[in-house]
Amino acid sequence: MTDIIIQGIYGRMGRTLVEKISTREDCRVVAGVDRESGHVGDISVYNEFAQLPCKGVIIDFSSPAGAVAAATYGAEHGLPCVICSTGLSKEDEAALETASAKIPVFRSANMSLGVNVLIELARQATRVLGGEFDIEIVEKHHRNKLDAPSGTALMIADAINAEAGGKYEYVYDRSQVRQKRGAQELGISAVRGGGIVGEHEVLFCGPEEVVTLHHSAGSRGVFADGAIQAALYVANQQPGYYTMTDLLRGKLPCV
Fold this sequence. Notes:
Oligomer: single chain
Shape: elongated
Number of domains: 2
Radius of gyration: 19 Å
CATH architecture of the largest domain: 3-Layer(aba) Sandwich
Helix content: 25-40%
C-alpha cells in the first residue's frame, strides 16, 4: 500500500485524485497540503509541509512555488515527489533537479499517458518527416488556464526539436509579420475557451499531404490516473529525476 500526500487537494485536480484513489486498493491518501488547514472528508489538510505528521509520496498539483516547496521538503525528509504543476521557470526546474539528488522526483507537465504516447509518436514522425514537412502545434484549453502556450505544447515542441537536433525556432504569433513561413519555424498556437479540458494537435505538413497526431482529454481523470501511476512507480525508485519516458519504458517498443 502506497501512502500519498496531495498538495493542492482543494483544487479540481486534488479532488479528482481523492476520488480516484478512494476506489483503489494499492494506494491511499494520508494527508493534504493547501492554503488553509481543514479536512476533505476524513483526510486532514495542513497549510504547510512542516505540519505533516506522516510520510508518503507527494503529488503536487499547485503552483510553481508549491512545486519547489514540495521538492525541497521531500528532499529534506525523504519523501518522493510527483510534480504536476505547470509554468515552472528554469530556476524552479533547477530546484527540482537539485532535490532529485536526494529523492526520486517525477516531473511531467502533462500526466496523461495518452499525451505522452503522442509525444513519442511525434518524435518518430520528426525522425521520418521532419526534413521535408513543416510542423505546427495547436493546443486548446478552458478559459481559466493561465499559461499560454500550455506546458504540454512546449513539451511536444521540445521533444520534436531535440529529435531534430535543435534546428527549430518556436514561433508563437505571426500576426505582426508579413513574410513566408521559414523552413526552421515550429509554430505553436493557443486557443482558450469554455470548458475544454485539453486538446493537442501536431501537424506535419508536406507539399501534398498532411499527417496529424491528435489527443483530446475527455476529463481531468486522465491526468489523475497518470499521476497515480507515477506515484506508484516513483515510490520504488532510487533518487533521480524521472519523466514519463521512464514510466512508459517497457510499455512502448519505441521508447
